[in-house]
C-alpha cells in the first residue's frame, strides 16, 4: 500500500495526494491517506474531503504500520518502538520516502511497494501525465453555493482571467518572508499587459486576501471583479472558480497553482507564474512551472501603465 501524509493548506494537501495517487497507479497499489496530523495542526483545516477523491483513510490495522515518528501520541510512539515488536503477525512499519531536500528529484519517482510518503511534492513532475485523472479526483463532492455556481457559469462564457494576489502572511510573517517572495504590482502588470496584447474582451476576476492593495496598485487599465463571497472554510470554492477561468495569473502559492492546473484546456489559454518562486538560496522552486505555462522571467518589460477600476 501507499500511504500519503497530509499536512498544510489546501494546495499542499492536493500535491501530497497527487504524488500518492501517481505512485499507487504506477505500482497497482491501494492509496491511503494519513490525516492524523490535523488533530494537532491548527493553521489550516483539512480540506481534501471537499473533493471526489478515491483514496480511503487508514484503518486501525493499517495504522499499525505507520512509522513511529508520525504517530500522534507518546503512547503510539512507544508502541512503535517497543510493544509492536512482539505483536504476532506484525510485519513492520512502512519504509518512508521523504522529500529531502525540498524540490523535484528524479530518484523520488522510483516505484516501490509499500511506502509512507512524507513531503510536499510541489511539481507536476511528481505526477506526470495525470492531469485528466486528477481533474476527476479533485471535482467538488457537493454543489457549491449559488453565488459560486453563478460565477462559474459566467466565467465559462467569457474570456475570463483569474488573478491571485496573496499577501497576508507573505507580508506580515517574518518566517514566511524569509522564504516566499512578496510579488509586487510589476509582476501582475507585466503578465496582464502581455495577455492584453494578445487577447480582447478580457474579464478579470481577482482572488486576494488584500483587495484594497490590489485596487490601489494593479494599474493596467482593465477593470476587475473581486471574488469576496468565500472565506477560509470555503477555499475549495475559490479553487473551483479559478479553474473555470480561461487564463490565469497565479501567485507563488500552491492554491492558485492548482486552480490553474485543473482548468480545462483551451487553444488560446495562457497561465503566468512567478519565477523565481522562492527567494534565491532558500528552497528549490525550479520545477514549479508546467511546460505550457509562461514564466515571469520570460516576459519582456513593459512601461505601459493605467488605472485599474473595480468592476461594478
Number of strand elements:
11
**Rg computed from alpha carbons, rounded to a whole number of angstroms:** 21 Å
The general outline is globular
Strand content bin: 5-15%
What is the topology, as strand order, of the major beta sheet?
Answer: 8-7-6-9-10-11
The CA-CA distance between the termini, in Å, is 52 Å
Total count of helical runs of at least 4 residues: 11
Structural class: alpha/beta
Helix content: 25-40%
**Mean pLDDT across every amino acid position:** 90
The main β sheet shows up as:
6 strands, parallel
SSE string, helices as H and strands as E: EHEEHHEEHHEHHHEHEHEHEE
Question: Runs with pLDDT <50, length 5+?
Answer: 83-91, 301-307
Structure notes:
The chain is an alpha/beta fold and 312 residues long. Helices cover 31% and strands 13% of the residues. The chain has helices at residues 10-27, 60-63, 74-81, 131-137, 146-157, 169-172, 174-179, 185-196, 211-217, 235-244, 254-261, and strands spanning 2-5, 31-34, 56-57, 96-98, 115-118, 159-165, 202-208, 224-226, 247-249, 271-273, 294-295. A six-stranded parallel beta sheet has the order 8-7-6-9-10-11, with helices on both faces. A five-stranded parallel beta sheet has the order 3-2-1-5-4, with helices on one face. The radius of gyration is 21 Å and the shape is globular.
